Amino acid sequence: xxxxxxxxxxxxxxxxTVVDKRASEAAWREAYEGGGSLLTPANLLWAQKLGIQAQxxxxxxxxxxxxxxxxxxxxxxxxxxxxxxxxxxxENDEADEVxxxxxxxxxxxxxxxxxxxxxxxxxxxxxxxxxxxxCLLTELKRLEGTAQILxxxxxxxxxxxxxxxxxxxxxxxxxxVCSRVREVAGPPGPTARITSRFLAGCDGRRSAVRRxxxxxxxxxxxxxxxxxxxxxxxxxxxxxKWDLERRPYRLEQKSLNGYGPTVGGGAAxxxxxxxxxLYRLSVNAPFTMWAxxxxxxxxxxxxxxxxxxxxPKLPRGTELADPAWxxxxxxxxxxSSRFRHGRCFLVGEAAHAHxxxxxxxxxxxxxxxHNLAWKLALALALAPETDPDCPLLxxxxxxxxxxxxxxxxxxxxxxxxxxxGKLKPIHYAHNDCGLFSVYSQSPALVASExxxxxxxxxxxxxxVGGLAPNCTDLLLTTTMKCVTLEQILLAPSGKGALKHKxxxxxxxWAIQLDSPQAMDSLQSLEAERRDSLQLLTWEKxxxxxxxxxxxxxxxxxxxxxxxxxxxxxHGDGLDTQLLGQTTHIVDSEAQFAQTYFGKEDAxxxxxxxxxxxxxxxxxxxxxxRDIALYRDIV
Length: 634
Fold this sequence. Notes:
Strand content: 15-25%
Strand order of the largest sheet: 5-4-15-16-17-14-18
Shape: globular
Number of helices: 18
Helix content: 25-40%
């Protein structure tokens, strides 16, 4: 998470210092052990915006996984025998037999739509986490003028005028965080001092930043909440010699020759890479070890113990060989009671740590960085004296902590349903892919108008707090080339990647925004559409938007006017010159209007945040009020 956050900030022009206690790059690589192996479709879009998707797809052994439902339903092996094939067929129903109005029908339809993103751009990627980290490090090293890495240093604490303060003013009046770091190697020496505007703890579940900055002396009522599991588990990566095809497997052991209750379980997951015999195996430890404290066990689980526990669950004749690493773990979840305190933030496993199983843990860490990076960059760019308690920065905790709770519930629910035989893979496929997650409660979202879905800020495909859906066949008048909305939203363009994007559906609307009638509902606007005395051209439309956003925030936005025809009318009589650069889009099929507003002749606006989520959406003139509220937030 540290490299991901640093790269996004540095790409946005923010100076970043990364402190890593490992002595060098070589030591950093040697320390790698385990990690995630599946990048979700939502985070694949993040990688595209960051400009690293092509490198990830070219990584050794990287595989594209398009069967989303199958990921949630691996093939089951009971007492060494394959007793049920995994994949979509587990549902035991065909698409044409499902009631479209049912929950399953809805989930099937939304999974098929994928928010209009193409199959090529929207899949899972199976690759080692170290490939992602290597790619991030390579890109970060190219930004030497903006980013630096202090190898061989450890964070020790912060200096401040009081125990409860996480920042103080320097001589120039700026509020800063003063961090103390020391060299790890050699005899204890003097500590160095790093002055920064913000501090992000990306240092894992044993986070020093959390220990020093979020303790009860500084953050009243802070808790590092532990949700404990009972069983002790073991995990390893090794070569697996067997005759089964290379795919994920769920392992179980049942008494009474396979007809009794389940007495043990595990999993075998192919490890991405060129060695096709390499698997990651997990299995429960012997019952006599369940009371043991992991930190008190002197050595990792030996191959002999792993073989003993896995033997009843694997096909006869299976051999385990050449373990790369092994470890004990419990199904424990740790979630901080707050992710932000003053100018200090917790990111990734420093904020929430989960068992090393499934799709969600690694991807949740990436989503933390995507959520926080643009907020820090915007706070630094717009207001050097930003109040650390402002809604923009507070929204990081409000948006990401509930998602950490969802990860906990998702993992616990999956294994509970699995053990009880109630598993619905399509439900977990819908939740795990990340495309359909919504930040329902956040101060950095504005939803004041009820959309066509019956919810505030909710429309057919788009909703406030959700990822912006894609549209195709949009003609850019600057290049006269057809593009997709995905290409516009995810263009990796340096500082532009951290900008908001404002889209306006324009048309030949005869309205007068300053009239009393114009401030009524959308229906009133439609009634006045042809009878008003003033023609609202796109220039006047954008001018009204800029007036409501304010000059400072306009610099953090890009503006797009969506027209139904290439015959774009230009007016005159503007009070002032437009501040923002405008890009014109011709949408002859009205895809944008239908996708975002559910009607072809929509007259409204959409504000998309730098993380790709809809920050505000609504008809004019209500949209003007919404973006004014959003401006006050940021």
